Amino acid sequence: MKRAFIINSILMAFGLLSAISAQYFFGLLPCKLCLYQRYLYLLALCISLCGIFISESKQKYCIMLFVVVLLILFCQIILGIYHVGIENKWWTSSISCVNRNVNELSFEQYKDAIMSAPLVLCDVRQTTVWKFSMTELATIYSTISLYVFWFVQKK
């Protein structure tokens, strides 16, 4: 199980470093949902690091941490799918990071929305790689990470 935690730590660190590199080296600012996804990566990384240092004799704690990391990875996938849906206009967001229809707002609401709007909207693709948005790539990466974490532990 220790091997699964080591590999997951590497995967989560790579995911975080990729996101931070995209932000600081390529100017791709994160939206609110992107930040939530980063928090989940960081949480999975920290728990995986804890799993590395727990002795194999404390199997109960290793299993508990394994399940927690699986749940975090699953939440990453769900959040990623939700984010992809917002980006592709499959559904609207309940958080304040989408481009709202101006006709539905009064002048005061519109002014307040402009003043409190985040710099990056969740429903706008910033860039694509191989026709995939960064959100779609992150969701695919989270899914692969979950499978790798699960199957490495099985061996």
Layout of strands and helices, then pairs:
Elements: H1 2-26, H2 32-53, H3 59-87, H4 107-116, E1 128-129, E2 132-133, H5 134-154
Antiparallel strand pairs: 1-2
Q: Can I get a quick summary?
A:
Helix content is 69%, strand content 3%. β1 (128-129) and β2 form a beta hairpin. The chain contains 5 helices and 2 strands.
Structural category: mainly alpha
In order across it, which strands form the biggest sheet? Answer: 1-2
At the fourth level of CATH, the homologous superfamily is: DsbB-like
CATH architecture descriptor: Up-down Bundle
Anisotropy-based shape: elongated
Report the radius of gyration as a whole number of Å. Answer: 18 Å
Strand content: under 5%
* Overall domain count: 1
The biggest sheet, with number of strands, parallel, antiparallel or mixed sense and barrel status, is: 2 strands, antiparallel
Instruction: Please report the first level of CATH classification, the CATH class.
Output: Mainly Alpha
**Low-pLDDT regions:** none
